[in-house]
Amino acid sequence: MVSSGKWFSELITPDMLLRYRVKQTLYSGKTDYQQIDILETDTLGKSLILDGKTQSTEVDEHIYHETLVHPPMLLHTNPKSVFIGGGGEGATLREVLLHNSVERVVMVDLDPQVVQLCREYLPAHSSGAFDDPRLELWHQDARGYLVDCQESFDVIVLDLVDPLEGGTAYTLYTREFYEIACAKLNPGGLLVTQSGPASLLNFTECFTPIVNTLSSLSWRVLPYSVYVPSFVTLWGFTIAFSGSGPLNYAPSEMDQLINQRLIAQPRFYDGITHQGMFSLPSFLRKGIDREQRVITDGEPVFMI
């Protein structure tokens, strides 16, 4: 629920509500696709809200975006071409462009107004990334773009809005879509998708079925998680790939890769942090093992 009076409220579970005081509403309006609110609070700074769900905040967006981007980019031996689905704030793009091997990025975000408004009200999120000559930006459905494009990529990063019933993105979390996306990977390529909340209270909502759906493609799957304060929960991510490269880098090896391949040091992510992300608690490991659902176009899953 978007700001009521001086407060913003958001459902975390069907019976748990997050509320925080709004300092000012910088923008509120509807596009052809969704409700957009950009709010400022003392605790979280400027925040992007889409359809009543917090997408990112100034205080901690780097945690989410570094976690989404750097593990798959560093597990690839030499990522030159990257596809970004979603990511309208530009922060995912910012992190991708930190990798000195990157020569080309295709970013497809459905809603041009999100990009425009984030550039205006949240410029620190993109930090000039939209002006980088390596970027090709399109505003259309990511699934349709991948179906029609003749290009393939080293890394595909899916920074999509949550799969809400009646929303714009739930068909981008299905087996059929993942088949389309994985077919656009170069040999040795990796796909990563944000995978929803992963706390004890809600990890079965979409995290475990996303992991199981990607596993059903017979690809190797690496689920991981991190705590994002503004989401007030652990958040899940999933990497899928068909290669057989090394996965269990020691923290010192990850730090060496970061130093060699990134043009600036991340604020949150390093070798020890990487190790912790992939050390899932037992309830998540057991939940993944128990999960039977495969998400399809005919049987999607939805977040609350």
Write the layout of secondary structure elements.
Layout (H helix, E strand, L loop, with lengths): L6 E7 L2 E6 L2 E7 L4 E7 L3 E6 L2 E5 L3 H15 L5 E6 L4 H6 L7 E5 L3 H10 L1 H4 L8 E4 L3 H7 L4 E7 L15 H8 L2 E13 L9 H9 L4 E9 L4 E9 L9 H11 L9 H7 L4 H9 L14
Parallel strand pairs: 7-8, 7-10, 8-9, 10-11
Antiparallel strand pairs: 1-2, 3-4, 4-5, 5-6, 11-13, 12-13
Can you offer a commentary on this structure?
- Helix content is 28%, strand content 30%.
- Helix 8 crosses helix 9.
- The strands form three sheets. A seven-stranded mixed beta sheet has the order 9-8-7-10-11-13-12, sandwiched between helices.
- The chain is globular, with a radius of gyration of 18 Å.
- The protein starts with 6 loop residues before the first strand and ends in a 14-residue tail after the last helix.
Oligomer: single chain
- Name the helix and strand elements from N-terminus to C-terminus, one letter apiece: EEEEEEHEHEHHEHEHEHEEHHH
**Adjacency order of strands in the biggest sheet:** 9-8-7-10-11-13-12
Structural class: alpha/beta
Q: N-to-C terminal Cα separation, in Å?
A: 12 Å
Helix content: 25-40%
Low-confidence stretches: none
Q: What's the overall average pLDDT, rounded? A: 95
Q: How many distinct beta strands?
A: 13
Principal-axes shape call: globular
DSSP helix count? 10
Rg estimate, integer Å: 18 Å
Q: How much beta, percentage-wise? A: 25-35%
- Characterize the biggest β-sheet: 7 strands, mixed
